[in-house]
Amino acid sequence: MKTRTKVQAVAAGFALLLALSACGTADSDGAAGSTSNTTDISEGVQPDPAAVALLPASYKDKGELTVAMDLHYPPTTFLADDSTTPIGLNPDVARLVAKKLGLGIKFVNTSFDTIIPGIEGGRYDFTATSMSVTPDRLKVLDMIDYFDAGVSVAVPAGNPEGLSNDNLCGKNIAVTKGSNAQLKHLPNISEWTCVSQGKPAINGVVLPNVQEALTQLASKRVDGVFYDTPALVWAQQQQPNALTVLTPQVDTRSDHIVTVALEKGSPLTPALQAAVQSVLDSPEYQKSLATWHLTDSAVTEAKLN
Predict the structure, then answer these.
(1) What is the set of domains in the chain, with CATH numbers?
(2) How confident is the model at residue 34 (pLDDT cuts 50, 70, 90)?
(3) pTM of the full structure
């Protein structure tokens, strides 16, 4: 009976964590970092004439850009308390980019692994959903830098198994479907730190989103969650007694710049790159980073990869 009560208590704690990581701190006054803050950061921002001059006529005629996002990843991309308003750094950037081009913005909430096929199929004009560069993605996408993220491992609070970035061999580590963590980083780290040393490989458990990964961590079906550092740190801040983020970040032997992405060779690319650069130069970009506690992740150049 005691064991069951303890498990129920842990599950309840993680249920609260999931609610918080999906909904922020929900202060009633709309404070920074709160999902009750649905203020449009782009309000009052004027178009950038240099970016607008590069905009193809077809986009001017349509008057709106469609952006694809997976709205399950606080603090960069998630939904407000009203369950309809996209908030976080990425929606802020998308709104600002659209304003710099003198256009409206339409958000489409879709799973991460469907975004690239949707762009290729012409359903979305671009994405700003913390997508980093890979050789395969560059074959089909133009990718423009706007944010510097990293990856870390989260374990149950207090790290009862004493895990570190170097002793995950043979452990069940959750990754999200279609992410670089699944496709590149975890396999590489498993090879470097485990297989090449004659140790068991890390078992990557592929899950649809970070909420499901945290749920499985709570129920002890996985030993850790390998995901973007900002999101894991955000979750730990909301309920520090539920999980611990290992430090330092995992060394993946690569940078962690994430990008705005659109169809390769799109006529929209020059205008979008100019608009992203205008955003990076703006006070609104710095304000958004501060709001979501990501100030250290700023970049200054909208480089086209």
Answers:
(1) 38-148+256-297 (3.40.190.10), 150-245 (3.40.190.10)
(2) low
(3) 0.74
